[in-house]
Amino acid sequence: MCSASVVVFIVDGVNFALGPLLVCFGLSLLTFLVACFYLCILPLVTTWPWSLGCMGAYLFLQVGLHYILCISTDPGRLTRGHPLSESDEGFDDQSRTDLPVCQYCDVAKPPRTHHCHSCGTCVLDMDHHCVWMHNCIGHFNYRYYWRFLLFTWLACAFVAAASHHSIQAMADGDSEPSYFKACVRLPYVLCLCIGLVVFGLWLWHVYTVLAGVTTLEAVILYRNKQKSKPLTWATMQHNVHRTIGPMWTTVLPPFTNPFPWTTNRPRIWSRGLVERNSVV
């Protein structure tokens, strides 16, 4: 085994081992911020506290639900016996003969499928392996990931703004104990830092959605010094609708979304789909 393979093996092993710990940390951090907001920050707000409380509940609910769905949803793993890898229901006859076979798990790879070494399987429309989700981000959970990023930076901006107001209110008096002040100031710092990072990551995924490429494809295009297809307004609309769905459904909680792309139904892969999904 070459040195590069050893490094990849070690990194993938560390990512897989850290996954559960980071998921627990993420859920604990969300719980901490929610508790600080309602127990310490909101009581110091004198302007429209009920409205801010409802808005906070909406944002926290969206963040929590999309985070759980990212973790629990199968991104589109292909294994032996999967309808997209072996069954005639998954491919038309001509597409089956053109599909490459994965050298690691020995299954037919539809277009835009990549092998994840951390998970040990091929994933449809694989974007990347997210250690914070302990899961790959792929065909069936990418929309949840994109919306999770959106609502996370919105929630961070909301909490930071409310915390800033509460910090100013605390400056007018010294009656609050030190731990109470810490529970107001710490969320302000955390949300500023997390919000800026997540906002930058979300902007990147806005670009990939509009361009109709995954993160892996964007990296491959950059390394090969290739350009993606020219974008038009119609192309960008198609890419957004295919990946995220109608944008107005983003404001709905995920369990109320009645549209068919919320179900884990295998997609029929054909030569036409290969051509539509080509990135170069």
Automatic annotation (TrEMBL):
<feature type="transmembrane region" description="Helical">
    <location>
        <begin position="21"/>
        <end position="44"/>
    </location>
</feature>
<protein>
    <recommendedName>
        <fullName>Palmitoyltransferase</fullName>
        <ecNumber>2.3.1.225</ecNumber>
    </recommendedName>
</protein>
<dbReference type="Pfam" id="PF01529">
    <property type="entry name" value="DHHC"/>
</dbReference>
<keyword id="KW-0012">Acyltransferase</keyword>
<keyword id="KW-0812">Transmembrane</keyword>
<feature type="domain" description="Palmitoyltransferase DHHC">
    <location>
        <begin position="101"/>
        <end position="218"/>
    </location>
</feature>
<feature type="transmembrane region" description="Helical">
    <location>
        <begin position="187"/>
        <end position="220"/>
    </location>
</feature>
<dbReference type="InterPro" id="IPR001594">
    <property type="entry name" value="Palmitoyltrfase_DHHC"/>
</dbReference>
<comment type="similarity">
    <text>Belongs to the DHHC palmitoyltransferase family.</text>
</comment>
<keyword id="KW-1133">Transmembrane helix</keyword>
<keyword id="KW-0472">Membrane</keyword>
<dbReference type="InterPro" id="IPR039859">
    <property type="entry name" value="PFA4/ZDH16/20/ERF2-like"/>
</dbReference>
<feature type="transmembrane region" description="Helical">
    <location>
        <begin position="50"/>
        <end position="70"/>
    </location>
</feature>
<feature type="transmembrane region" description="Helical">
    <location>
        <begin position="148"/>
        <end position="167"/>
    </location>
</feature>
<dbReference type="GO" id="GO:0016020">
    <property type="term" value="C:membrane"/>
</dbReference>
<keyword id="KW-0808">Transferase</keyword>
<dbReference type="GO" id="GO:0019706">
    <property type="term" value="F:protein-cysteine S-palmitoyltransferase activity"/>
</dbReference>
